[in-house]
Amino acid sequence: SDLSLSVCISSRELFSPSQKYQLLVYHADSLFHDKEYRNAVSKYTMALQQKKALSKTSKVRPSTGNATSTPQSQCLPSEIEVKYKMAECYTMLKQDKDAIAILDGIPSRQRTPKINMMLANLYKKAGQERSSVTSYKEVLRQCPLALDAILGLLSLSVKGAEVASMTINIIQSIPNLDWLSVWIKAYAFVHTGDNTRAINTICSLEKKSLLRDNVDLLGSLADLYFRAGDNKNSILKFEQAQMLDPYLIKGMDVYGYLLAREGRLEDVENLGCRLFNISDQHAEPWVVSGCHSFYSKRYSRALYLGAKAIQLNSNSVQALLLKGAALRNMGRVQEAIIHFREAIRLAPCRLDCYEGLIECYLASNSIREAMVMANNVYKTLGANAQTLTLLATVCLEDPVTQEKAKTLLDKALTQRPDYIKAVVKKAELLSREQKYEDGIALLRNALANQSDCVLHRILGDFLVAVNEYQEAMDQYSIALSLDPNDQKSLEGLQKMEKEESPTDATQEEDVDDMEGSGEEGDLEGSDSEAAQWADQEQWFGMQ
């Protein structure tokens, strides 16, 4: 096309005006596919100018009805399609205002569903919610089964019943489509933050024979369990979805994050490698690798990987959270706050976005801002175990509100006795009050039906406080078996081995009285084991 255009300029009579227009569009398309977006926009603009001149020529010199000209004019790309491609270029260049301006210039009656869809997404990103809702509704008017448009409307707080009314005619006219109304209901709950009802509704859908083992539904269910703080079921659903679709990428960033939190770094590394083999043009592989780096305490690398993921997908909430957390741990709190705020804008119903922001406020001693944000979350997302615990976390930072924190945590544990974050915070409060026996009872009860590294470690700390040294060592060992990278458990175990308890001292006296029993060699072995732990701790410190 480039060579032909040069020939066209040198010899104007060689190509007709319509052929020159076609050549310009071909050339612009090839530039677009080569990701030369600015150059493509330039050529698309030239093509539109050529089309405008062609239209004027047609008006001045009407068609003679030539049989060869009619098919040619019919095959020419429409101006609307060219403008759509220009808008795509602008979105790739992150020039959303220019993209909106181009599409706004197309008369409403001439807008195709994909143009209205792009406009709706651009309006939504720009915060023009009313215009976005109008465009999504126009898409549904033309394509009643456009599920992305349905999700777009629900995300903009349009009532589920109103959205369902736009699809009711098509649902009634097509057999075996009655599940769609339940699907809309489920995602209406998702976008209002009602995780429990959303989970129940999607479970009812997933059990139906028509949608059994649907990977998209399983992924949504896994994400909802994650949002509800049920990490165990979330991991199970992600694993089930992976088994059904080994090439699944969507949601794998959350899955990788959950594995990393549990200390399963080898699994995280394997997952990252597998995802990179599937595609390195998605944010998810970069986020998974970033989680591996973050939980290995390599924050600079995690920051780079998070930034790369955002570059590939600026709407990746998990990438924003990863980068924000890395910045916070590197002491760049103000930059971290910007990323957490953007994550909240994209996912206003996800509690972990607010948790990250509140942690930044607490890290910078901005307790008042943290309290305002926690109260807003409590009012917006409702009084559930997660929001109660988040508010209690902030209250624990101020001596004046300690009693309020206790009341909030009791309410949270009444709702969900197994909610780990609430158990941890309640244990922290009991530790301050030196109520170690109450803390031990709380932790044993929480560990009755689940196993968690942090809970075992805290139980070990409490057992040390009441001189239960042997069991404390057992708890630290269990914690390290669950997460070998947990440095606090490692330090606790090492301290226990270095500091002799009264029981150990008595045993050592007994050993001194026993000659040739071989027990002394065992004790020497424990010293060498302590040295190994010390070496390992030094290694962790270097990461």
From TrEMBL:
It comes from the Eukaryota. GO terms for biological process: cell division; positive regulation of mitotic metaphase/anaphase transition; protein ubiquitination. Residues 506-527 have a biased composition (Acidic residues). Residues 491-501 have a biased composition (Basic and acidic residues). GO terms for cellular component: anaphase-promoting complex. TPR repeats lie at residues 317-350, 453-486. Gene3D superfamilies: Tetratricopeptide repeat domain. Residues 491-543 are annotated as: Disordered. This is APC7 protein.
